Amino acid sequence: MGRDVLRIEDLVVHYETMAGPVKAVNHVSFSIGEGEIFGLAGESGCGKTTIALSIMKLLPYNGKILSGRILLGDVDVVLLTEEEMMEVRWKKVSMVFQGAMNALNPVLRVGDQIAEVLVEKEGWSKERALERAKELFSLVGIDPSRVYDYPHEFSGGMRQRAIIAMALVLNPQLVIADEPVTALDVVVQSKILDLLKRLRDELGISVMMITHDLSVIAETSDRVGIMYAGRLVEHARAEDLFGEPAHPYTKALINAFPSIVGERKRFEAIRGDPPNLLNPPPGCPFHPRCPYAMDVCREKVPKLVKVGEEHEAACFLIGGA
Ligand SMILES: Nc1ncnc2c1ncn2[C@@H]1O[C@H](COP(=O)(O)OP(=O)(O)O)[C@@H](O)[C@H]1O
Ligand SMILES: [Mg+2]
User: Fold this and answer.
1) Residue 149's pLDDT is what?
2) Per-residue pLDDT tens for 82-99?
3) Which residues, at least 6 apart from 72, have a Cβ–Cβ distance to it below 8 Å?
4) Which residues pair with 17 in a beta bridge?
5) Which of 60, 156, 262, 297 is the most buried (most CB within 10 A)?
């Protein structure tokens, strides 16, 4: 792997609400290398999308980055103005939004929706922009003549390919894909995941793959971060995470997706629910659901400690206090 394309350091993000602050992201750090697919996984509500929107500086009005750094190369996007962000967003980092394939404008041709970005942001002529849209269609495996189609003439898989093409329009180094295959059936899912891997290979881009589904991570990712209640509780190379998971939450998640490990096991849902981030429990946020919880887990937040090469987990069973 080359240098880091993205480095997040000690990021804290809250949402202000009438009931108080929702502590969506708590002291999260990780990095993504050049040409790497980094999977960010965890149950719904653990802060994955909030991290993505923080990188893009597209948090909703009540979302606030309280501390930490988000380095894209040498630039800390946390410090950039909205005007400066215009030179970063889509050009250095772009995002495939959760559910975007269902949000294409139904009355505009798909090719025009891609070309529009180049016409409006870059001042290209309509003709040149449409040529670029055709090129991008070939790249993502859609016949270029289909740029003249409307969204309803596309299958779900083709719409998702078009959305991915749109994310590539200004040649970003990093593409964030937020639940890119969640709404698709399994066969189409694996074609879209193959596409993202091929784009990584052909364009050398890095991908941040956000999903609640560990089988998506297993199929695509070089390295993985596991989130729980706004915290990164484990990170490792994918083979080490699946081979030797260290955190009880990671183990429980893997058990909840029996197909990953091959042999047929009984599906074991994780007991209980993730905590409400308005009032997370004291100590380790996983302790109320953890079968191994000890006294210390109810009192102190465990720090990430090394459990192997490029492998860390935050759990008192492993050590650290
Ligand atoms: N605009 C918002 N206002 C208040 N709370 C929010 C807002 N957006 C998300 N949240 C809360 O922040 C937490 C993290 O959400 P999110 O980042 O969307 O998680 P994920 O993508 O992992 O499902 C959740 O508790 C969610 O309810
Ligand atoms: Mg999300």
Assistant:
1) 97
2) 999 999 999 999 999 999
3) 5, 6, 55, 88, 92, 93, 173, 174
4) 20
5) 297
Q: What is the pLDDT of residues 148-190, one digit of tens each?
A: 999 999 999 999 999 999 999 999 999 999 999 998 999 999 9
| Ligand 2 centre distance from Cα of residue 44 (Å) | 6
pTM for this entry? 0.95
> What pLDDT does 127 receive?
96
CB-based contacts of 197, cutoff 8 Å, min separation 6:
37, 220
Closest Cα to atom 18 of ligand 1? 49
Minimal-distance CA residue to ligand 1 atom 5: 15
Using the mean position of ligand 2's atoms as its centre, give its distance from the Cα of residue 112 in Å. Answer: 28
- The per-residue pLDDT of the chain, averaged, comes to 94
Q: How far apart are CA 306 and CA 114, in angstroms?
A: 44
> What superfamily would CATH give domain 4-87+220-236+248-313?
P-loop containing nucleotide triphosphate hydrolases (3.40.50.300)
Give 63's strand partners.
Answer: 15
Query: What is the rounded end-to-end Cα distance, in angstroms, of the chain?
Result: 32
Please list, in sequence order, all residues whose beta carbon lies within 8 angstroms of the beta carbon of residue 109, skipping any fewer than 6 positions away.
147, 148, 149, 150
89: DSSP letter: B
Burial of residue 3 (CB within 10 Å: 0-12, 13-18, 19+) is exposed
User: What's 45's DSSP letter?
Assistant: T
The CA 19 to ligand 1 mean position distance, Å, reads 14
Please identify, by atom number, the ligand 1 atom nearest to the C-alpha of residue 60.
1
Note the pLDDT tens digit of each residue in 41-55: 999 999 999 999 999
Q: Give the pLDDT of residue 114.
A: 95
**What residue spans define the domains of the chain?**
4-87+220-236+248-313
